[in-house]
Amino acid sequence: MTLVRPVRARLVTSQWAARVVSPLHDVLTESERRAVLADNPDSYLHVTSDPLALPGTLGDAAADAAQARALRRLLDQGAYRCMPEPSVFVYRMREGGVEHTGVVASVDLEGFTDGRVLGHEGVQPARVESLVRHYERVAMRSEVVALFHRTEPAVTELTARVCEEPALLEFIDAGGVEQSVWRAGREESVALARCLDRHRHYIADGHHRVCAALRSCERDGRPEGSSVLCALYPQDQVLLHAFHRRVRGPVAVRELLDALRPAFVVRPAAGPDVAARSIGLYAAGRWQVLTPREHRTLAGVAGLDVTMLDDRVLRPLLGIQDGDPRLEFLPELRDLEPTIRACKEDGGVLFTLHAPRLNDLISVAERREVMSAKTTYVKPKPRTGIFLQSVSFSRGKAAGVCGC
């Protein structure tokens, strides 16, 4: 079965793009999501926002119906246009002088089970179930899974050739990110799909979306040709950042430090930045750095800093298990000041980490191991609301959307 195929899609129009296109709901804080939903009735966040992530808004059934109505409203108002034939697209994001360029295509779901596409990160069951329910109600997908592959000159050359033509769509989103989309011609679409089909791909971002799509497909009897919308990036277009961890207080800091010292050298630090194989700690108003007394070079998951934090600190010393409500995840790019204030207010602690390398992800994936959820924060983060792809695993419950 062919892995990478041209996608039959709708594309947001130039007139609507800046208002419709939004970040994924899970990269925004609750207050940020609420602000977008209140201020912009056209944001695609009205279609994708997880009702479980916004407690106190609507009941689950009402929220699901609202999502379907939000999509139907955008379609009825002409926010999208159908592409004349299945195509491969080139999608570029430019932010702060950094560009990320990838290929948007349809990737066969079988590839995520037979080893042609490998993941590396665990998932949170409640979030997967919420997405499955969403997929049952809304018949089109716009959330793009980000994959990466080994850099290949042929893919780079073909992508550059497509970008020589005028872009089909250019806009700046609400966050100031410049975005451009090109539709590859029939010849380039076939050539790009064939080149990418030869590669093994790795999930950069979207493990929950993939897991939910697979579960939905399974419930629908595994219809042939089921696929997921993906942005496929060469390895040199992907950047990794860390996810930090906050433990809500109160935490007995003196007892924690005493328990840490047999396994770690604990030294004062100037701030949150740490080198690999160490852990930053903010507790009781002070930054400190934890360096393991025993240095071990291990492969796969065992060699990751987040594993060291989980196995030597969070679980044994603080009793934190998977899904513990005391644990918060923060991408390193986020301003930490609000989190520091929260630690001061409730007596909690914040652990900071160094980002893993892409080769660490590949090592974990090739060994068929699984990292802790929220181990890596990947850039780019493809936006939702640009592309719409119809899907077949809807079990007959989704809002009726026909055509492309």
Describe the structure.
The protein is α+β, with helices and mostly antiparallel strands and 404 residues long. It has two domains: 4-238 and 380-390, no CATH class; 241-377, 2-Layer Sandwich (Conserved hypothetical protein from pyrococcus furiosus pfu- 392566-001, domain 2). 32% of the residues lie in helices and 25% in strands. It is built from twelve helices and 20 strands. The chain has helices at residues 14-20, 30-39, 45-48, 60-76, 125-137, 153-163, 186-197, 207-219, 253-260, 305-318, 337-346, 358-366; strands at 4-5, 10-12, 80-82, 89-95, 98-108, 117-118, 140-141, 145-149, 169-172, 178-183, 201-205, 227-234, 239-247, 264-268, 279-283, 286-292, 327-331, 349-352, 376-379, 387-390. Strands 1, 4, 5, 6, 8, 9, 10, 11 and 12 form a nine-stranded mixed β-sheet that branches. Strands 13, 14, 15, 16, 17, 18 and 19 form a seven-stranded antiparallel β-sheet that branches. The chain has a four-stranded antiparallel β-sheet with strand order 3-2-20-7. Strand 9 (169-172) and strand 10 (178-183) form a beta hairpin. Helix 5 (125-137) crosses helix 8 and helix 6 runs antiparallel to helix 7 (186-197). The longest helix is centred in the N-terminal third of the chain and has 17 residues, at 60-76. The chain is globular and about 65 Å long. The two termini are 22 Å apart.
